[in-house]
Structure formats: structure tokens, C-alpha cells
Amino acid sequence: MAPKKQTPSVRLRRMAAELRRLRASADMSREEVSDQTGINSVTLYRIETAKAKPQKRTLMALLNLYEVDPAQREYLLALLKDASVQGWLRPYHSDLPEEYTAYISFESEAQGVRNYESLFLPGLLQTEDYARAVIRGVLPTATEEQVEDRVRARLERQPLLTKAAPLKFWAVVDEAALRRVVGGPAVMGRQLQHLAEVVAAPNVTLQVIPFEAGAHPGMPGQFILMDFADPMDTDLIYIDSMAGDLFLESEADISRYRAIFDHLVAVAKSPNDSAALVAELAGEHEKGG
User: Fold this and answer.
1) Can you say how many angstroms the Cα of residue 284 is from the centroid of all Cα atoms in its chain?
2) Helix (H, G, I), strand (E, B) or coil at 156
């Protein structure tokens, strides 16, 4: 059996970023740190890239070498203690794909999310019936229990948009996502009406790329770009595809996907015109009965 793939928690990424910063402040290479601490340079690389959780004695050796002050030392030891904890998980999440549960955790701690969707409406904006129809459609071999677990996970994410300090959510969707009748006309009509109501919130922005825009950089597929309030938490990209789920966090990838999202925003209808299109389509479904 292949070993279970490890996905980092927000805290592990935060600790890794701070250890990179501390080494840079000390003006030391990984090889120099290895020589002075006995920590293997490959192990140090894995720790600094959040691919491995350090043992406490390893972290203490690094903190001593970098002469970290007591307050910062306490902060990093606290991060180590909780480094494996995903920030927002439920007992049944153990049955969901590991990358998806990691995404749920990252999303719960994000300050802002930019989401491009080419075929579906974003999960945070879906109704229960629409979500169920989407999940059944894309996972035809899933059991009823598996479908319901995913529906519940999707719905439990949505209060992020209405909490005291709500998530800043900016969605760009292809017009195809609005016109594809998922779950039948009645389900789609209720979904569009719900969408028209949700996008009125000040923390939610929706833009639609019209068919007449032609080819655009989002056509290869969806992606999500998350940013975090803590400056030590670098932006993170999540891609869900038929080939598997993927997290990207290199500066080159972040820069590339930011540019793609900016281009999509530029070719999309304005938020006001997009809201008007959603309302128009919702009205058409209502008249159609």
C-alpha cells in the first residue's frame, strides 16, 4: 500500500515560513545550518517547505542557533504543537479525500478567496439541491453516503461568508456555469435565485465571462487562489481536476495565477452587469415554471 500523502496545515506552513525567515536573517545557508546543528540539509529543506514536521529537539536546535527571543520561541513551539491540526474539520471528514479536507482547513483560515469556475457555480454559492446534483453528476460511482458527506461538507463551509469577519470572496465564472441546467429546471431556478441574493453581500463579488468574450485563459479549468491575514502565510493555489487535486505555492505559480485571474476579471462583465444577468436568467427559470 502506498504511503498516505501528507498535506500541510496552515500552522505548518506558517512555521516553515518563519524558519526560512530566521535563517535568512542569520545569513546562513542550509549547509551551514546543517554543519552547526547536525540536522541533515535535506531534512532542513523539507522542514522549511512544510513537507515535514520537525521534532521538538530539531526545532529547539534551530531556535538556539538563530538566537530566537523568548516570545518568538514560545510562538513557534505553540505552532509545532498544533502543526498537524487542520483548522476546521468534522469527524466525517476522515472519509473525504485528504486534499479536499486540507483545502477546507486552508479556506477556513483564509482572509480572501479568488475562485474561477468554468463549468460549475462555486461551492460557497451553491444551494443544497444544486450541490447534490453536481456531486452525483461528477461522481457517478459514489455511494449515497459519500454523496451526502460531500454535500454536508460543502454546506458547512458557507457560513464563512456570513460570519462576524466574513471571508472576502471574488468569483469569476464562465457563462456556461449559469446556463447549464444542473438538477433540472426547478433546481437550477432556485440556485440562480439564491445566487442573485448572495452576491448582494458586500464581501461577495461575482463576475461572469460572457460567451462573446471568446477564448480566454480560464478555459483549461478552474482554480482557487487563497490569501491569508498573517503575513507569514504565503498565498496558496488549489486546483481540483480529473487528474487529482493539487496545491501550488511557489512565487512563480502564485504570480502566474494572479495574472490569469486579473485577465479573467478584465474580460468578464462588471459585477453589476453580472448580477443583472443572473437575475435575468433566474426570472426566465421562474417563468418557465
Assistant:
1) 33
2) helix
pLDDT at 253 over 80: yes
Question: Buried b vs exposed e over 11-37: b needs ≥16 C-beta within 10 Å?
Answer: bbbbbbbbbbebbeeeebebeebbeee
Domain range for 148: 94-288
- What is the DSSP secondary-structure string of 78-91? HHHHTTT--SS--G
In a domain, 183, yes or no: yes
How far apart, in whole angstroms, are the C-alpha atoms of residue 41 and residue 268?
47
Residue 266 CB-half CA count within 13 A: 8
Which phi and psi angles does 101 have, rounded to 5°?
A: -65, -35
Burial label, 142 (beta-carbon count in 10 A; 0-12, 13-18, 19+): middle
Is 158 in the same domain as 280?
yes
Phi/psi zone of residue 214: left (φ > 0), alpha (ψ -120 to 50 degrees), beta?
left
Instruction: Give the percent of the chain with pLDDT over 70.
Output: 90
Q: Which three cell numbers stand for residue 206?
A: 461575482
Are residues 15 and 135 both part of a single domain? no
List of E strands, the chain: 112-117, 168-174, 204-209, 223-227, 236-241, 244-248
Q: pLDDT tens digit string along 138-154?
A: 999 999 999 999 999 99
Instruction: Work out the average pLDDT over 3-17.
Output: 66
Residue in the structure block whose three cell numbers are 472519509: 95
Query: Do 109 and 163 touch, CB atoms closer than 8 A?
Result: no
